[in-house]
């Protein structure tokens, strides 16, 4: 079932990239060393919440299939990984610059 969620989220790749680019620009424009961790945490949680909504809709549509809920929870855990990686890389780049 995870493969079905992955194919569904591949269709939403443009949305993921749009949020990733918006997060990148937002970090560049509002960089503050004292509140960086807190701000990026809130941004990541907001993006994670928005992208989880689309997966909840997909879960409701496919709820009768086997392992739909387990595939949903696995996908929800995978969603914030690229955003967290971007936050860590940009944080390290600014600290060592």
Automatic annotation (TrEMBL):
<protein>
    <submittedName>
        <fullName>Uncharacterized protein</fullName>
    </submittedName>
</protein>
<keyword id="KW-1133">Transmembrane helix</keyword>
<keyword id="KW-0472">Membrane</keyword>
<feature type="transmembrane region" description="Helical">
    <location>
        <begin position="72"/>
        <end position="96"/>
    </location>
</feature>
<keyword id="KW-0812">Transmembrane</keyword>
<feature type="transmembrane region" description="Helical">
    <location>
        <begin position="41"/>
        <end position="60"/>
    </location>
</feature>
<feature type="transmembrane region" description="Helical">
    <location>
        <begin position="12"/>
        <end position="29"/>
    </location>
</feature>
